[in-house]
């Protein structure tokens, strides 16, 4: 990967986390993501599933801040993301994904409408609610159902997330 492609990928990852697009990642972005998913599935914030999504989003933010908020101002700037999070992601994407596990687990519970695991269609709804372009969301959801049984397992989602986040730097 050349450095231009690395920059482009890091920028895309940053934009994924910066849900409101104001140039930094903070708690608001994570609660916005939680709200968007709950709204998509008509789940109330007060329900058990809704509370789990918000708790997972908060834990995800705390994990992100612990890694990347170098100056402790409760905001992760693009520079902090590149120096802090990107390095950690590169060194250990699987461990980074563990930070997201409670959130992903709770989102899966919301998207799993019959208790047999989310369908690719439900995954598309989640991804679109989080700002993924529909065409890309469709490709990702299809890829997530690797064995084609029409259901997506939590471990598949977690490892896909780790893969998405793990961006190799040009000098790595
Ligand atoms: Ca933001
Ligand atoms: Ca900061």
How does this model look, in words?
- Helices cover 68% and strands 2% of the residues.
- It has one domain: EF-hand (Recoverin, domain 1, Orthogonal Bundle), CATH 1.10.238.
- The protein has a two-stranded antiparallel ribbon with strand order 1-2.
- The chain has 172 residues and is mostly helical.
- Helix 2 packs parallel to helix 5.
- The protein has eight helices and two strands.
- The structure holds calcium ion (2 copies).
- One calcium ion binds next to strand 2.
Brief overview, please?
The protein has 172 residues and is mainly alpha-helical. The chain is built from 8 helices and 2 strands; from the N terminus they run αβααβααααα.
How does the SSE layout of this entry go?
Layout: H1 3-17, E1 24-25, H2 27-41, H3 48-68, E2 76-77, H4 78-91, H5 93-111, H6 120-129, H7 134-144, H8 154-165
Antiparallel strand pairs: 1-2
Bound molecules: calcium ion (2 copies).
């Amino acid at each position: 990967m050349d450095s231009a492609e690395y920059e482009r990928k890091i920028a895309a990852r940053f934009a994924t986390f910066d849900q409101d697009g104001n140039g930094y990642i903070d708690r608001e972005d994570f609660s916005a993501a939680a709200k968007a998913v709950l709204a998509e599935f008509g789940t109330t914030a007060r329900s058990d599933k809704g509370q789990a999504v918000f708790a997972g989003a908060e834990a995800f933010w705390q994990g992100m801040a612990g890694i990347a908020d170098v100056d402790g101002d409760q905001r992760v700037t693009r520079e902090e993301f590149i120096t802090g999070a990107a390095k950690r992601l590169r060194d250990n994407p699987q461990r980074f994904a563990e930070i997201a596990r409670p959130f992903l687990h709770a989102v899966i519970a919301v998207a799993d409408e019959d208790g047999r695991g989310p369908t690719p269609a439900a995954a598309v709804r989640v991804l679109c609610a989080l700002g993924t372009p529909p065409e890309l969301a469709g490709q990702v959801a299809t890829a997530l159902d690797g064995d084609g049984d029409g259901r997506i397992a939590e471990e598949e989602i977690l490892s896909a997330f780790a893969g998405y986040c793990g961006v190799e730097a040009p000098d790595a």
